Each structure stands twice: as C-alpha cells, then as structure tokens.
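Table 4 source record.
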Amino acid sequence: MADNDKHNTDSTLVLPEEKDITPSSTASGKDKAGTETTAKHPSHAGLWIVVILTLLIAAGTAAAGYWFLWQKDSGQSALADEQSAQKAILGNLNDENAQLQRQLIELEKSKQALAGTVNSLTEKTESLQLQTEQLLSQLGEMEGRRPSDWLLAEADYLVRMAGRKVWLEQDTDTAVLLLENADQRLKELSDPSVIPVRGLIAQDIQTLRQVNRTDTVKLALTLSGFLSQVDALPLKTFTRPDENTGKEALSESVDDWKSNLAKVWHSIVDDFISVRRTDAPVAPMMTAEEMWLYKEQLKLQIMQAQSAAMSGEDNLYQQSVANAKALLNDKFDTDAPEINGALSTLDALGEANVQENLPEELSAMAPLQRLLESRVKAAYGKGEAAQ
C-alpha cells in the first residue's frame, strides 16, 4: 500500500511543461481569430486534491497502526490479569487440597480407633455370650430339678413389696392386692408344702382389711383450710354504748323555738346527772395484743391437730380439737355465724378416729423366705432337701 501511495504521489507532482508563447504564434492567432486573445494559465485544483488524499491516507495508516498497538497492549494486560486470577485459583485449590489431606489423615486415625473399639466390643460380646450360655446351662439344671421354684420366688417378692407398702406408704389397699397375687402364685405350685404359708397370707390379708381406713389426708387438708380462716373470726370484745342515744335533734324552723328551747334545757339537765343500771359486769375491752394472742393460740391448736392426724396420734388429735372448741366458746363471739360454722366443723372433725393399727410385720414373710432359701440350697446341692 505504501508503494502505491508513493507511486501516485510521484505521478501527481509532475507538472506539465509550459509552452512558450512566441510573438509569431500570437500574431498568427490573432490573425486567425480576427480578434485579440488573452493567454490562458493551467489550473492547480487537481494537485491539491491529490495532496489532501495523500494526507488522509497517511493519517488513516497512522491511526490503524496506533489502534493495532493499543489492542495488542490491552490483550497483554487482560492476559496478565487472567494469569494472576488463575494463579490465585490454583493457590486456593492447593490450600483446599492440603485441608482435605489433613481431614483424610484424621479420618484414617478415627477409623483405626473405631476399629479398635469394635474389636474390644466384640471381645466383650463374646465374653458375655459365654457367660450367658453358662447361666442358661445352670438355669436348665435348676428347672430340671424343680421348675416351680420361680413361682415361689415371685410370691416372696410380692410379700416383701406388700410389707413396704404397709410400713412406708400406709397403703393397705395395694398391700392386700399384692398379698392376693402372692397367694395365687403359691396356688399355681400345686405343692402341699406351701399350704401353711398360704394360711399365713390369708391371715395377713384379713388383718390389713381391719385397719382403720380414716382418710387422714382429707382431715389434714380440712384443718389447713380452717387455719387460713382464723384471722377473719370475730372476737368477743366490749362495745361502748352510743352516748348520743335518746337525744333529739334541734329543728331549724324559727316557729319551733319553744320546742328547741325545751330540748336544750333537757340536754343540759341530763348532762348534770346520768344514771344507768346494768345487771352483768362489763368486760374490759381487749387490746390488740390480746386479740392477736387468742388467734395465735387457736392456730396452734389447729396445727397440733393437723400434725396428730398425719402421725396417727388419736389422743393428741382429740385433745387439740377440744382445746380449739373451748377457745372459740370462751374468747370469740359465739353469736356470729362464722363462729357457729367453725364450731360445727370442729365437731365433725372431732368424731374422726386417726389412730393407726397397722401390723408391725407380716406373718407370712419370714416362713416364705425360709422356704425359698431351702429350695435354692437344695437346687444347688448345698443344703438339705426342701420340706
């Protein structure tokens, strides 16, 4: 392209030669045309067009070269940035790879520890299986000698549980049910040697059914509710009579001046002399300390009755209820409906019997235990034969 431009430029710069205008030719021309002609000069417009085109081509070439170099530099910068990003990604991948390698090592260690634990558990399982086989063998020997001894052991357990229910929880109903189940186990033995024990169990059942069945918990709760109402009970206190009783009010009308004057006169005369008659002595008014003391004494008696009911002390319970009733009649206002209701409640509570007559021991417990021990010794060959 540069060679072509150069060729065009060289061809453009060649100017046509000027022809000499001689007088002879001028003269002859003048003669031919018959008029005087002016000499014509050649035009330079084509030359300037060629020059401008050359400059435009050179500028375009320079711009194309600059654009090419700029694109090349930009591509190299993008390539460098991409290479840096790839290096960063490669570094992250290396870090993740190293972390995965560490995790694999830890997992391998955990796998080895788990394998050791599994081996240990396998050994323990084999040991327990061996012990179980030995126990099953001994059990088979015991069952072969006397299989019904298990029923005897169950009966002994049920009798022991009945005793715990009686002495620890005072639950006679559950104890009777347990004794009945124990008697049913002994009945399934079909063994005449356990008949005396069954007779003792029947005796214990009858004894527990005759135990006092007063609901001491209900009594204690009733007393607790009564205790919370003591502060609201009215005491028997002295009430001062109204001194203004019998005095007539004065009228505001002017026309009633005579009656008002008579009322004032009678009021003045009555203040000089006052005579009142009473047949019974007037009790002194209670102080705040005395009222608090009487109520606290009543609370104390109620709490003593509550404690005696829970512990089964009937004498203390009856005495506490009687003391509370006496205190109500003596120090509290018996005309008030609250006091009458409290006295009725104490009368009902006093009729209850909280005495406990639980047996100290179950008569079937010791004989049944001896019978079971003798059977076990006989099953292992370490004692005398069962009776």
